[in-house]
Design brief:
alpha+beta; endopeptidase fold (from Nostoc punctiforme); 2 domains; six-stranded antiparallel β-sheet; 7 helices; 19% strand
Length: 231
């Protein structure tokens, strides 16, 4: 019995030590995350003045994802990813369609782009900023899509969402504004081998050439928008 009791105590001590160690490990990770977040925020403040941005602004950059090159070639534009700027709890966030649709801290979003270059655009008719009621309508329109999976196939349903589709639908449903020209897949330049390889990877030999598509380039070039930042 004494041996069993000793073994039981030893196991209890080991469990407690492991529990404490796990807690300390997570505390170290959390502190590291906090330091990294503060570092990113300082870097962001060096990149731009907080007052230069307004909720509802659109932000574009050159993604470094596996499909970015194909998007750039097919649309003849360097801008392959985009999102909507909101301020949540005093910090700028990008509402974007990645995996899944989510809010991403602006500093993190900028760091993901090629060379940390980005362009911010705004509705011409918004003046300095959209009205609070308009921002509310935009957020209400986007909320049902939060958490949806990213759409690798660029379909037009809401089951899965890609970046420019998210912007187009949020602005159309929230404010009745259609940003950019809707196209079909067949309208893009599909001639480059890199584009063709990506199409075969996604669709095989059955290309949905009549699928409705909105590209980052189409929104970027919308006459409804004006450039407010180019960094």
């Amino acid at each position: 019995m004494d041996i069993l009791s000793s073994i039981g105590k030893l196991l209890l001590y080991l469990f407690v030590a492991a529990f404490i160690g796990w807690g300390l490990f997570h505390e170290v990770l959390n502190r590291a995350d906090s330091r990294e977040e503060r570092k990113q925020q300082v870097h962001l403040m060096n990149l731009l003045d907080d007052n230069e941005l307004h909720e509802g602004d659109l932000i574009f950059h050159t993604s470094q994802s596996a499909q970015s090159q194909a998007i750039q070639l097919a649309t003849h534009s360097p801008y392959s990813h985009c999102g909507i700027l909101y301020k949540e709890a005093g910090r700028w966030q990008v509402f974007e369609a990645i995996q899944p649709v989510q809010l991403t801290p602006l500093a993190v979003w900028i760091a993901r782009g090629s060379g940390e270059h980005f362009v911010v655009k705004r509705l011409k008719t918004a003046g300095n900023s959209l009205a609070p009621s308009e921002i509310t309508r935009l957020k209400d329109a986007g909320r049902p899509m939060l958490g949806h999976k990213y759409d690798l196939y660029f379909g037009w349903s809401d089951d899965r969402i890609y970046c420019s589709e998210l912007i187009w639908k949020v602005y159309e449903r929230g404010l009745g504004r259609q940003l950019g020209q809707l196209q079909q897949l067949r309208d893009f330049d599909l001639s480059n081998p890199a584009v063709q390889a990506k199409l075969r990877e996604r669709y095989g030999n059955r290309l949905p050439l009549n699928e409705t598509v909105i590209s980052p380039a189409s929104i970027f070039n919308s006459p409804e928008l004006v450039t407010v930042l180019n960094r």
